[in-house]
Amino acid sequence: MKIRWPLFVRRFHKWLALIIGLQVVFWTATGFYMVVIHIDRIHGDHLIKSAPAQVLDVERMVSPEDALRRYPGATEMRSSSLLGRTVWEISGPSGMKLVDAGTGEVLRPVTRDEAAAVAREIYAFDEPIRSVELLTSAPMEMQGRKPPYWQVVFDRWDSPTFYISPESGALISRRHSLWRIFDFAWMLHIMDYDERSDINNPLLRISTWLAVLMALTGAWLLVWAFPKRRKKKKR
Description:
Layout: H1 5-36, H2 39-43, H3 64-70, E1 76-82, E2 85-92, E3 95-100, H4 112-122, E4 129-135, E5 149-154, E6 161-164, E7 171-175, H5 177-190, H6 202-234
Antiparallel strand pairs: 1-2, 2-3, 4-5, 5-6, 6-7
């Protein structure tokens, strides 16, 4: 039996389009979103005030040597600021300690009110805070970041959310609706519906090759159609 190649290729192309066509639409739509929205806005850079330069009053501070002497197992030390107060962040095998740079006193973990004040201090807009919650399990948007941390949500249309460290009062991450849409679009784009990070997963590779076959068969049908049209014109 002689194979009718145009009919075979047309049917093959049709079934490929039915199988992979929706994913091609997803690739196009999600790629468009990721290109149109500037990456700095996705990262939430517009939500944060420009941090002023930190001025250290060395004469009134516990010297780094004295601070380290109190914590001989320390592996890292750096100066920071917590609500206008200069502090030392001292890290070691037992974790990180926050030390008042003026008195040398070890500070307690950041409270709910302090977390809200830190978020308010660095937030670039004027909307009120909607909620403050200490999370002990990581939400989807904070996968890879080990809790606990304070979640501070502002009352705005895109729900700006700051995650504040209870140890240091530092901003760990920020999220908002445009980021969440981007994250969902990224999941659809790379077809990793679990971790949303594997850009070389089998489902994506198989779908990519099916899309390539769909494009090649479509191109073949397009090329094949031109001579047929010319013959009809001659008749």
